[in-house]
Amino acid sequence: MKMHVGVATVSLEVTDALTLKDKRQVVRSLLARIRNQFNVSAAEVGNLDAHTLTTLGIAAVANDKAYVHGLLEKVVDLIEREPRALVLDYATELV
Questions:
Q1: How many CB atoms lie under 10 A from the CB of residue 23?
Q2: Which pLDDT score is estimated for 2?
Q3: Cβ-proximal residues to 57 (8 Å cutoff; 6+ apart), any chain
Q4: How far apart are CA 39 and CA 61, in angstroms?
Q5: pLDDT at 89 over 90
Q6: What Å distances lie between residue 17 and 21, 35, 80, 87, 89, CA to CA?
Q7: Domain that includes residue 50, residue range
Q8: Which of 5, 11, 51, 68 is geometrically suited to a Cys-Cys bond with 89, CB 3.0 to 4.6 A?
Q9: pLDDT score recorded for residue 71
Q10: How far apart are CA 86 and CA 95, in angstroms?
Q11: What percent of the chain has a predicted confidence (pLDDT) above 90?
């Protein structure tokens, strides 16, 4: 059996955040929804001290490469629908 690992890196601007506390509230909510809806690992991995910018890392594992790719695309779609954040850039990598 072959295992496929997919990683997505998503750079966001939290548009209404005036403080780090504002940003972290949005990020925590978004990460919880991602984890609960898609059963993936997700964390804030960059721009931790910037009050409007953040980078999220999402990882998924499955035995079907197409499934992993589709799952990560669905996660990015969910993030793009978040009204409090603007996706600046994203990249996916499959191993």
A1: 25
A2: 87
A3: 7, 8, 9, 42, 43, 44, 45, 46
A4: 10
A5: yes
A6: 8, 22, 17, 15, 19
A7: 4-94
A8: 11
A9: 96
A10: 27
A11: 88
**Which residue, among 77, 67, 63, 72, has the nearest Cα to 93 in the 3D structure?**
72
The domain total for the chain is 1
User: How far, rounded to the nearest angstrom, does the alpha carbon of residue 61 sit from its chain's CA centroid?
Assistant: 15
CA–CA distance, 75 with 70 (Å, rounded to integer): 9
Vertex 60 angle, CA 69 and 85, to 5°: 80
Please name the residue that has the structure tokens 């910018």: 53
CATH number at residue 11: 3.30.70.1120
Mean pLDDT of 6-30: 94
Q: Which two tokens stand for residue 41?
A: 């690992």
Q: What is the mean pLDDT of residues 53-62?
A: 96
